[in-house]
Amino acid sequence: MCSRMIEIQTQMSERAVELLNLPEGQPCYLLDVGCGSGLSGDYLSEEGHYWVGVDISSAMLDVALDREVEGDLLLGDMGHGMPFRPGTFDGCISISALQWLCNADKRSHSPPKRLHSFFSTLYSSLSRGARAVFQLYPENSEQLELITTQAMRAGFSGGMVVDYPNSSKAKKFFLCLFAGVAGVLPKGLGSETSDRTVPNQVQYSGQRCRFKNMKGKSLKKGRDWILEKKERRRRQGREVRADTKYTGRQRRPHF
Question: Keyword Transferase on this protein (predicted)?
């Protein structure tokens, strides 16, 4: 692997650990999902942490073994869930892996189900108050919506942190999730100079709570609310009835 790629991987690992907001000077037990050859694990070891790496590629894990990384390694498909006891880890990081769960590589693969299986078992394996940070390369906003929806369904709170939103090259997406205890979503790097016209993906986590926060205004069951909900379900891959002129229309009372 070229030195430039190693440098980028290390920088993203460093940022992910920063977003974990771990207690200073205290070794933690961390999970690295999609660990590959163990480059992120090297950074975790340098910082004094203990870690377990999970990856679907036996070839990449062989490289990690040859490199004599300090963490424990496990061969596994993240879409099948995480096989760890409840409360095992103090945090989780993942670099450039989560977006692969949005692909259906086999006919039996359902991206929403695989994402839910992963997030629900990950939630269980984290100690309460722990964070999970995923650096990812989403193809589009629908993919981000699918990922964040399944994470929230599994019990996580949090949302998307976007570093350098104005830059096409430096722009990085980090899904920052809180297990059990809601935290304050960190600000993205370079966001203080960001233009209001730049799309900000952080909004996704807040959409689910939007209607709860509007006290006294019941927007549920209105036509716009129903259409939005149906569209959201379509993006999740669910079967939804076609929209018609009767969608959301209020029925006359029957006596």
Answer: yes
